[in-house]
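Recap from last week: sequence in, structure out.
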Amino acid sequence: MNILALSTTSSSGSIAIYKKDHISFINHLDIKVTHSERLLPQIDAGLKNSKINISDIDLVVIANGPGSFTGTRIGLATAKGICMAHNIPLLPINTLELLANNIAHSNRNILALIDARMSEVYAALYSPELEIILPETNTKPEILFKKIKKPVIVVGDGAKEYRNEILVSGIDHTFCLEHQNIPLASTLISIALKNNIPEYDFESISELEPYYLRKSQAELVRDEKLKKQKKINRGN
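Predicted structure tokens:
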């Protein structure tokens, strides 16, 4: 089994390659260059390092959001292009689930927290065995924290962005280690190896959309303009 994993839902991106029975390549970059410029060169470097060709890949696994709208879209478009060109199955994984897997089997429930901008978070609450307690949501952090009743360990960039809010919320919490906050592609490989590998399905891959969890800022602005226009039309 050869697996290509891509994670581009945050400002930093990573790829990982699993060759036969081990992870043969990991690359993580935190630089201010768009994913469209660096993703394909990373993939090419990983394949060369692992001494395999793209046609040798048996599965592509992708972090499909929520997270950065642009990064998620670029990562999925790249994965879909590779899969449809080479008849490779594609496995999408929720980014919150990815983060929770970084600290699976802890002694606390796991609060996966991603900074969604505009003073909001993407979040989900899991048991130590990764069973869903609170399904993924887009909300204000103060609303979310009122729902947390048991001790949690917090993971994701939202843990850093909203650290003060967490501290004053009164929830029983601990923070994970710094490296565990990153949605790494290598974690996607571990998740994929626990799942049933899907069959190649051109139609389902072509129809797969990013999991944004909320509308983009452009869509929100558009919807607000439409509401105002409808009010004007009704007034006439």
